Amino acid sequence: MSTATVGKRSFGAVVWDYLTTVDHKKIAILYLVAGGFFFLLGGLEAMLIRLQLMAPDSELIGAQFYNELFTMHGTTMIFLAAMPLLFALMNAIMPLQIGARDVAFPFINALGFWLFLFGGLLLNCSWFLGGAPDAGWTAYAPLSVISPGHGVDFYALGLQISGFGTLMGGINFIVTIITMRAPGMTYMRMPLFTWSTFVASILILFAFPALTVGLFLLTFDRLFGANFFVPDMGGNEIIWEHLFWIFGHPEVYILILPAFGVFSEVFSTFSKKRLFGYSSMVFATVLIAFLGFMVWAHHMFTVGMGPIANSIFAIATMAIAVPTGIKIFNWLLTMWGGSIRMTTAMLYAVSFIPTFTLGGITGVMLASAAADYQYHDSYFVVAHFHYVIVGGVVFGILGGLTYWWPLMFGKMLNEKLGKWTFWLFFTGFHLTFFIQHFLGLMGMPRRYWKFLEGQGLETGNLISTVGAFLMAIATFILLYNVIITTVKGKKSPADPWDGRTLEWSLPNPTPFYNFKQLPLVRGLDPLWVEKTQGNGKMIPAEPLDDIHMPNNSFLPFTISLGLFIAAFGFMYRVDAGFPAYVAIGVGLAITLGSMLIRSVKDDLGYHIHKEDLEKEGAGE
Amino acid sequence: MSTHEDVLSSENLPHEPEKATLEGKNKFLGFWFFLGGETVLFASLFGTYLALKNSFGAAEHTTPSQELFGLELVFIMTMLLLTSSLTSVYAMYHMKNHDFKKMMVWLGITVLLGAAFLGLEIYEFYHYVHHYHHTFTSSAFGSAFYTLVGFHGAHVAFGLLWIITLMIRNARRGLNLYNAPKFYVASLYWHFIDVVWVFIFTVVYLMGKVG
Amino acid sequence: MKGWMGRFRALFLLSSLALVLSGCGKPYLSALQPKGEGADMIYDLMMLSVIIMAFVFLVVMIIYTIVIVRFRQKKGQEDFVPKQVEGNHLLETVWTVIPIILLLILAVPTVQYTFALADTTPETEDGEPVEDALWIDVTGNQYWWHFDYRDLEIQTSQDLYIPTDRRVYIKLSSNDVIHSFWVPSISGKMDTNPGKNENEMFIHAYEEGVFWGHCAEFCGPSHSLMDFRVVAVSPGEFDEWVADMQAVDPEAVPENPVAAEGKDLFQENSCLACHAIGSSPAAVGPNVTSFGDRSKIAGILPYDKEHLVSWILDPEQHKPGNLMTGKYPMPSKEDAEKIAEYLMSLQPSDIGPDDAEDGEYIQPKPKEETEAEGDEAEEDTNEE
């Protein structure tokens, strides 16, 4: 069963293994592959957007298709690329960082993935079934309610299904971190990446239900004749905006906090220093999360909430700059006095600081409610959130993947190609987005299918498009890097970066049960503690004994598949009639039936016997 | 370290069988967090309802909440659900004392009370639709009302199915460390539904009656 | 409403930053070249935040540069183990307190300006209420703008005429989806919501000119083409425009025979069902009373007959998803030309976009006279 024997098995067996796996390391790879696929898709959409905006008054792409493109670009990148890629890192690393053999709910973990995947696939089916959603990733009502065709239905139902998955993933991570830490791994010894996973999961738990409700209301309005957002029938379209942003703003922190976690690990490792101000970093993370729930309405300054509400939300938003600033300075001081190695992962981390500082600066500018009347919904905002989400989250994902690649795949990515990717991506990114701040202030609103000639917007848009191409080239080099190292790369040492945290104490490849004996944690950066004060190996906290493992299951796949089928039925209820009802019936039967099986069939897992573990140990 | 036989055995149960295993503890904790999420879900629905209460726009049928709601029926429903919460507490009490039969009896009563509640709720909806033309699509108020109360009703229905499934599945093998957390979590869910109803009773019906 | 920050304004303008910024964009569109009260205030706030933030960025970048230059791993020192520092309370306090102070400096004017910009109670400088303030009801539609001059019985679409000597108060709503009213060089934006969520704001142009407005809230396929103009004219010119617009006779037959024929066609083809002439409350489509003075066709196309004919024959080609397409019997090209001729002849006022751009400032008539005129106008309506 261990990864070493995977190569010997047939292709079908490998596929079946991944369809039924409940191993967090394999689920991480599933998240990575699916998230990577959607990232490429979202990138392709972005390139088409930039091509359309390369020249004024361009007729390259039609207005409707353009709207579908930017709607899907945003939706895909946030829900189907950034979050799953972070989930890949969380799944792969967090249990290892706390010294756990698995997550708290392996079955739910798999279910979370398959729900996300089927939700994402459902959303993208829209391209082939009459057009993608076209109301923006924010899907403001009533535009989203009156949008013809089924595009927005795909949006609502696809996100609903994948949202369930995310929610389950979040609960799973929270419980894992609370109950499954190794002996001695107190809360204040947890690596920052684990901390940020923990906090982001709490955010998911409390933010996603608001989206769930919003999407239900939208679905009811569109498919079942409800009147939530229909002003003529007493509805109020602003409710959607509130529900969306009560979810949507914490979502930003759900994305960025894990990226902060990644950088904290990378800075510390490649400066050979412990994280400066660890406790204030933890405090800042929690504070950002807390404030993150108080500021949703800063996305709605121009809605007409009145000066009192606007002022309150403006000040609350500015307050977030303080903990974020604490983090920036702590990272700088982590490097101060260190011995910095500029690996590819470190390059991402180092370049993140000025990039994210710029994003934070524009964030504070946007928080100034009165001034936001000019910035709002202009390219200034587009520039701001790309600085935060690309400069923060995407840099974090790329840096984190480079850093943990040896742990996930047993091989190292090519550093030379990695640096090429970095420099092209970094240059392209700033070229694309820096100028957009000015485009916005010069009067270019966002989501504009075309800008007209003679408004002074030509040069800026051209530069922006050129930058986007550089990012695309960088992505291709990254892909080539992944393929070439997978095919030709050599096995990497178990601890290639001179790591500090628990995950680097594991052999390469990581055994499927992770820790043969749970390690005893003696301080922050446990492995570093053992390297400097011990013999460089973790001390076991328990004698060698049987290990309890969960069984694989195909049910997560079928539960998700059933919802996928039923969603089509709900959507085409009116147009298709009977066949649609059959789809609803069959789909729900599959889902509920699978849940019933899960409920009544005992799933007790199995044990790896002590003797087998001893044998395996001898073989090493 | 426990083996399969231990987990499925009804002998020698500890005092709190629902939290005796790591799986049980995880389930217990995870479910509490799930209920946290559910709280946000219902809070959002309550917010929406309050924003759209008695909001009719140009709708054809516009019976305001004061005329619409009859408190007698809703009061009976409230009593039924509150009592069912109490009976589920008895069930859990017997579970902790390892008295499987009594637990099943009390769970059975809980299910009956829940079913009665659901039946009355369906009657209530039927009444609104046929006497006042107050439907899901008649106005924003209607949409908000049926969505909030309906979400709760759907939770009740799901809870009933869940408890019934657990009862049938485990009827013949008794209590053990494997199913104790399942029963316990189901009862937590039932309490949560009850708490939500208390809010619905207050916010929707009582406040709807006064103004 | 120029608070204490006004005094720092000169300093800001001198800073090279502002010089660079003011080179950005076109004067009739750019938020960086404010020509109105709101935009001016916001520009001050923007500059304040830019300066504070530039300071923060500078501090970060100085530490950053030192760090990555000085503390790189040196050749031959791969085994060097740096001191493992836990933290430093003094430093951590410093970088918590200083940002808080900086943010407070920004927060105070932010609140002040947020309230100032939300002040839609017409008052004179002494705090006396203004009775005859100019109120305009702005309605967003997919994909055009309607302007209803409250109490003046004037309706226009696409081009909004305002005087430069005072604040103009606008009430914003929408007939379909959410739009957002944005004239960057005059003021910040405000959403137009359908239903009950109406908004109010004021706009006040300091200079005469034709300023470009955009829809800033995504509203459908032609969101990017929902442009409009604000024609800011001197108060005297505005009064003249108002008088002319009030005197419009919707039934007037143009002298030009082609245009007269166009008028009949305009009626026959049921254009009037949507496009009102004169102060009719019907506003299914843009009001065309002063079509002859428009600065653009449909807000985006160059103002000439060729484009107007092309628009009439195929609006979909110019504004995808517009609500005019398919709602009327398609006229022949000749008929369309006649209709165009008619529409372009609708020039009820001598005041047009040119007057906003010619730089000539005409003072309003003395107060008594305007009041007398106002009374007459009232009497007229009473007689009707």
From TrEMBL, chain A:
InterPro entries: Cyt_c_oxase-like_su1_dom, Cyt_c_oxase-like_su1_sf, Cyt_C_Oxase_1, Cyt_c_Oxase_su1_BS, Cyt_c_oxidase_su1_bac
Top-level taxon: Bacteria
Membrane topology: Multi-pass membrane protein
Protein EC: 7.1.1.9
Name of this protein: Cytochrome c oxidase subunit 1
Keyword annotations from UniProtKB, A to Z: Cell membrane, Copper, Electron transport, Heme, Iron, Membrane, Metal-binding, Respiratory chain, Translocase, Transmembrane, Transmembrane helix, Transport
SUPFAM superfamilies (alphabetical): Cytochrome c oxidase subunit I-like
Main location per the UniProt record: membrane
GO cellular component annotations of the record: plasma membrane
Cell compartments where the protein resides: Cell membrane
Residue ranges annotated for the Cytochrome oxidase subunit I profile domain, each copy included: 10-522
Metal-binding recorded as keyword: yes
Pathway: Energy metabolism; oxidative phosphorylation
TM region positions: 28-49, 69-93, 105-129, 154-180, 192-218, 238-263, 275-296, 308-333, 345-367, 387-408, 420-442, 462-483, 554-572, 578-597
Catalysis performed (reactions): 4 Fe(II)-[cytochrome c] + O2 + 8 H(+)(in) = 4 Fe(III)-[cytochrome c] + 2 H2O + 4 H(+)(out)
Job of this protein: Cytochrome c oxidase is the component of the respiratory chain that catalyzes the reduction of oxygen to water. Subunits 1-3 form the functional core of the enzyme complex. CO I is the catalytic subunit of the enzyme. Electrons originating in cytochrome c are transferred via the copper A center of subunit 2 and heme A of subunit 1 to the bimetallic center formed by heme A3 and copper B.
Any GO BP: electron transport coupled proton transport
Annotated organism of origin: Salirhabdus euzebyi
Automatic annotation (TrEMBL), chain B:
InterPro entries (alphabetical): Cyt_c/ubiquinol_Oxase_su3, Cyt_c_oxidase-like_su3, Cyt_c_oxidase_su3-like_sf, Cyt_c_oxidase_su3_a-hlx, Ubiquinol_oxase_su3_dom
Claim: Cell membrane is one of the keywords in the record: yes
BP terms from Gene Ontology: aerobic electron transport chain
Gene3D superfamilies: Cytochrome c oxidase, subunit III, four-helix bundle
Pfam families, per database record: COX3 (PF00510)
Transmembrane segments: 29-52, 72-93, 105-123, 143-168, 188-208
Domain Heme-copper oxidase subunit III family profile: 1-209
Cellular component terms per the entry's GO annotation: plasma membrane
PROSITE patterns for this protein: COX3
Subcellular location: Cell membrane
Main location: membrane
Keyword annotations: Cell membrane, Membrane, Transmembrane, Transmembrane helix
Annotated membrane topology: Multi-pass membrane protein
Keyword Transmembrane part of the UniProt annotation: yes
Family (UniProt): Belongs to the cytochrome c oxidase subunit 3 family.
Name recorded for this polypeptide: Cytochrome c oxidase subunit 3
Upper lineage: Bacteria, Bacillati, Bacillota, Bacilli, Bacillales
From TrEMBL, chain C:
Obligatory cofactor(s): Cu cation
GO molecular function, one term: cytochrome-c oxidase activity
Catalytic EC class: translocase
Cofactor note: Binds a copper A center.
Pfam family, one: COX2_TM
GO BP terms in the entry: ATP synthesis coupled electron transport
Domain spans labelled Cytochrome c: 257-347
Cytochrome oxidase subunit II copper A binding domain sequence ranges: 131-244
Topology relative to the membrane: Multi-pass membrane protein
Catalytic activity: 4 Fe(II)-[cytochrome c] + O2 + 8 H(+)(in) = 4 Fe(III)-[cytochrome c] + 2 H2O + 4 H(+)(out)
Disordered: annotated segments: 344-384
Family per similarity comment: Belongs to the cytochrome c oxidase subunit 2 family.
Cited function: Subunits I and II form the functional core of the enzyme complex. Electrons originating in cytochrome c are transferred via heme a and Cu(A) to the binuclear center formed by heme a3 and Cu(B).
UniProt name for this protein: Cytochrome c oxidase subunit 2
Species per Swiss-Prot/TrEMBL record: Salirhabdus euzebyi
